[in-house]
Design a protein that fits this description.
The chain is an all-alpha fold. Helices cover 59% and strands 1% of the residues. It contains 13 helices and 2 strands, in the order ααβααααααααααβα. The protein is globular, with a radius of gyration of 20 Å.
């Protein structure tokens, strides 16, 4: 797989847009991934709420939300996109499959889009910046919508060449995970159905669990993740100097296991830890630290105190 790279005037960063627009199959799959969970939420709120919700549904929702969510934050993001730590094939496969079950696109597509975001952050070419979409309140609202979910239908999946993903395209394990993407998506729906059916022996209880721990879970986590692109490039505090408009937002960080400490992340993108402040809770880092202590991963990257001090914004 190759790319037709082009370098704009100014800083020499790889633009490398391989496709002129998001492919039709990608748009269709994205539409299904966005719309179907939404109808799952509507059915849960309008039909099932108060009638078909059990503790088993809630437990399965929590387990699947955490497991698949960490597949994105620990796996797709900190391991595969930024190589914040190293691991063996079993750990890579575990987090790669878990990330696919979150239904945010194949692993290589997610990573190549994200790496381009960092290369062009809040500049022309950024796949999902909320900035540069016009003046006034219309431009602001349009930019927030684009960064949150509009980009999924216009600029998602354009970076499928070697510039941003050569290391992953060359890895047989990752190619295998990508080829079976739809299998992992189906597995993310089948697990809650199977567990609920095994516990209760009732098909309708399996379907009920699949709605809550499958469709509703996907809907909630998707919007929490997309908030990193929209909210965390618009609202919040800046602790470190960066060339973009990334910000820290504690509420988003709580919903997506530490990813909301986004200014920290853009200041030190290779760091396996995003919650760099004393009270900045970072669940993904806790998981990474736990894996390191168990000997499952190694070469964990962290910024030194000297680097932190150099990039810190003077509060005065």
């Amino acid at each position: 797989m190759s790319s037709n790279a082009a370098v704009p005037p100014g800083p020499r960063v790889p633009v490398a847009t391989v496709r002129q627009h998001t492919s039709l199959p990608s748009r269709i799959i994205t539409l299904i991934a966005v719309v179907v969970p939404f109808f799952g939420v509507l059915s849960a709120a309008g039909i099932l709420w108060g009638v078909a919700l059990s503790w088993l549904d809630l437990v399965l929702f929590a387990i699947m939300y955490v497991w698949c969510g960490l597949g994105i934050t620990v796996g797709f993001h900190r391991l595969f996109s930024h190589r914040g730590f190293q691991s063996g094939k079993v750990v890579r496969a575990f987090w790669g499959i878990a990330g696919c079950m979150a239904t945010q696109g194949p692993l290589t597509q997610w990573v190549t889009d994200h790496r381009k975001h960092h290369a062009m952050s809040d500049k022309p070419g950024d796949p999902h910046s909320p900035h540069g979409h016009g003046e006034g309140w219309r431009g602001a609202i349009g930019g927030l919508f684009h960064a949150h979910m509009g980009w999924l239908f216009t600029t998602k999946g354009m970076e499928r060449g070697d510039t941003y993903g050569k290391d992953l395209f060359n890895e047989p394990l990752i190619r295998w995970i990508d080829r079976l993407y739809l299998v992992w998506v189906a597995l993310g729906l089948a697990i809650p159905f199977g567990v609920a059916f095994a516990v209760t022996g009732e098909v309708d209880r399996g379907v009920q669990a699949m709605v809550w721990a499958g469709l509703v879970r996907i809907f909630v986590f998707d919007h929490a993740t997309w908030s990193v692109n929209s909210i965390c490039h618009t609202f919040g505090r800046r602790t470190y100097e960066t060339s973009d408009k990334s910000r820290n937002q504690w509420l988003v960080a709580m919903l997506v296991f530490g990813e909301g400490w986004h200014n920290n992340h853009h200041a030190f993108p290779g760091s396996a830890r995003h919650g760099l402040g004393r009270f900045q809770i970072d669940v993904s880092w806790m998981v990474i630290r736990g894996m390191e202590k168990l000997g499952l991963i190694w070469r964990v990257k962290l910024p030194t105190p000297e680097r932190l001090a150099r990039r810190e914004i003077d509060p005065a």
